[in-house]
Please model this.
Amino acid sequence: DSSGNLYVVDYYNHRVQKFNSKGEYLNQFGSKGYPAEGKGQFAFPSDVAIDSYDNVWVTDSDNNRIEAFSPEGGYLSQFSTEEGIYSSFPEGIAIFQGNIWVVESDQSRVREYSPEGKLLNGFGEEGHEEGQFYIPNGIAVPSAGEVWVADMANHRVQKWTTPPKVTTTEA
Model:
């Protein structure tokens, strides 16, 4: 965050821990909740991203949702990434210009959402060819029109420019 704090997802203990820049423990938030029993509960959270207000966005993978928290760990909001009966299993998350970018492993795709959870953009399909994913699990959006996706089961990282056009693939 802007103060140099580090947020760590504790996948198997269903929580997020906060440390200062010296590595000293500050606090934690979240508890086990599956199915999504309550606000601030997780079922295998897998990634965090910090927005320009220092709010903490967490991928709640088994509950197929994104949850937002204040820098102190207070619950703010959530939205679902499920589509009908289909699980999305959101894993990686990044924030660029206020929007939330998520890789959804079960659907082998990338989605861009507004902070309110409105779907704005999406691309990707399952496969092994360039421009396709097989269990993507990480994402970075370092600049406008540039999206990097860790494509775990294909053992590669793909760079997209002005999605959905793929421009390079690195193995």
